[in-house]
């Protein structure tokens, strides 16, 4: 998945915002909370996608090739795809959708109401 495809998919989710920060990383948020990032963090020149995941998904994904605990975010159960070979675009979209759901459900009821979700 390219950065443009990543951004296009994230943009289609309800009530999200995007900011470019941390050395040109595309950071996607819901209610001010980050759920997915596309960046060049870590070793190598290839873009890397990072996202929040459930405890179980975190344990399973970290055992897969080309997927590592996300730098700076691993303690919060984030993973980073270090290669385009890590998973299919369809799977990336599914995990981004799940990350969005995890983060949005942790928002207050008032915030969810204000965002219309």
UniProtKB/TrEMBL annotation:
Keywords: DNA-binding. It holds the Pfam family YjbR. It comes from the Bacteria. GO terms for molecular function: DNA binding. InterPro entries: YjbR (IPR007351), YjbR-like_sf (IPR038056), YjbR/MT2646/Rv2570-like (IPR058532). Signal peptide: none annotated. PANTHER family: CYTOPLASMIC PROTEIN, CYTOPLASMIC PROTEIN-RELATED. This is MmcQ/YjbR family DNA-binding protein. The lineage of its organism: Bacteria, Pseudomonadati, Pseudomonadota, Alphaproteobacteria, Sneathiellales.
């Amino acid at each position: 998945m390219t950065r443009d495809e990543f951004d296009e998919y994230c943009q289609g989710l309800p009530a999200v915002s995007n900011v470019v920060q941390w050395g040109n990383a595309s950071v996607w948020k819901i209610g001010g909370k980050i759920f997915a990032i596309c960046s060049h963090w870590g070793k190598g020149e290839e873009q890397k996608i990072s996202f929040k995941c459930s405890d179980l998904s975190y344990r399973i994904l970290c055992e897969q090739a080309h997927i590592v605990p996300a730098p700076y975010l691993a303690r919060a159960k984030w993973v980073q795809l270090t290669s385009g070979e890590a998973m299919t675009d369809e799977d990336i979209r599914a995990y981004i959708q799940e990350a969005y759901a995890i983060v949005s459900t942790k928002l207050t009821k008032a915030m969810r109401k204000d965002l219309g979700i």
